[in-house]
Amino acid sequence: MPKTGEQPGSGLYVCSSCGTVVRLDEREDALPPCPTCEGTEYK
């Protein structure tokens, strides 16, 4: 499971806590904390 601060690559990531979708456009982008609930784990 990707976590906040990791660079898992471009794509869509869904917060494991609330389901908010975060999009990373660049391979070098790091996952932020969830903008809705501050969750740190994504699927």
Describe this structure in words.
This protein has 43 residues and is mostly beta strands. It has one domain. The protein has strands spanning 11-14, 21-24. The protein has a two-stranded antiparallel sheet with strand order 1-2. A hairpin with a 6-residue loop joins strand 1 (11-14) and strand 2 (21-24). It is globular. The mean pLDDT is 97.
**How many structural domains in the coordinates?**
1
Q: What proportion of the residues form beta strands (DSSP E)?
A: 15-25%
Across the major sheet, the strand order is 1-2
Spatial separation of the terminal alpha carbons: 6 Å
Q: What average pLDDT do the residues reach?
A: 97
Largest sheet: 2 strands, antiparallel
Radius of gyration: 9 Å
Describe the global form. globular
Name the structural class. Answer: mainly beta
Into which percent range does the helicity of residues fall?
Answer: under 10%
Pattern of helices and strands: EE
- Give start-end ranges of low-pLDDT stretches: none
Number of helices: 0
Question: What is the strand tally?
Answer: 2
